[in-house]
Amino acid sequence: MSKRARRMSRAEARDARSGAIEASNDNRGIQAFSFGDPEPVLDRATMLEMFECWHNHRWYEPPVPFHGLARAFRVSPHHSSAILLKRNLLAASLDPTPWLSRKTFMAAVMDYLVFGNAFFEIRRNRLGGVLDIGHSLAKYTRRGVKPGTFWWTPSQRDEVEYPEGRIAAIMAPDINQEIYGLPEYLSALQSALLNESATLFRRRYYLNGSHAGYILYATGQFADGDVDKMKEALKNAKGPGNFRNLLLHAPDGKQDGLKLLPIAEAGAKDEFLGIKNTTRDDVLAAHRVPPQLLGIVPANAGGFGDPAKALDGFFELEIEPLQAVFLDLNDQLGVEAVRFRERVRAEAA
């Protein structure tokens, strides 16, 4: 028997508004605070499972907004470069057929790698045979509520329903639903966004000119107006034309009357490099791309090894499985629309 929810009392509501932070003493001076009990991360990591592919009685919406994935494509140079590398290798290995051109295949591969979905528009002759294969942008293509139907939704007013059997879909499997595919890099998307945030923060740091980064600690006796002059000089050190020199003259000042205390300048620089390197490694791990194939400069003297051997391993472990994914289109259409050339390994060349 399920328990009914009860209304909180005024005391419980007052305590709830204060959150998990509670004061540990009643002193009116310095107060110490303690946080509540630790909460497991998995409680929030499962938020994606609560999303549903809701529909408007015509088509289903994807569990992750495709518009957001499209904007996130260029969020990090390593993220976009890894996707473009896979697309170029797949397109170079394609053997074009009378039904599928290299241009159409490249566009479909791009959609599959970014959105986890690739939609092919099948144009048939009067006898029902495959005449030509086009591409329908995954960003605007939606699976219809009626089985076998798809919709073209570039906006909320210009939607068009494709004829039944017009669209063939290739999806990256998801563990929570079977309506849409999802890309493999979602686990590293937060790292890619953090990489962008670190870059934007550093760029704003240089653009706004606020490079003081120190405390001027003064304890000596100064003449009337000297402190105001120092404030004005420090204020003018910001903005365009920063990194200016500053002269302070205190004729009757003591030896330690003025102290310049830097504020975590070196630490901030090290933190920036650490964030960039760590997030880069996360993105490369999600895409499973060797760093030497993306032009990354090695930090050690030994380097990353032979790029040709790395390409052989990457092609066997990553590109060939992706080729097998797109061969499923042949099974859906009943013709050999997708065909790949056999690659000669660098060791055998």
From TrEMBL:
Region (Disordered): 1-21
Similarity comment text for this entry: Belongs to the phage portal family. PBSX subfamily.
Name this polypeptide is given: Phage portal protein, PBSX family
The species this protein was found in: Edaphosphingomonas laterariae
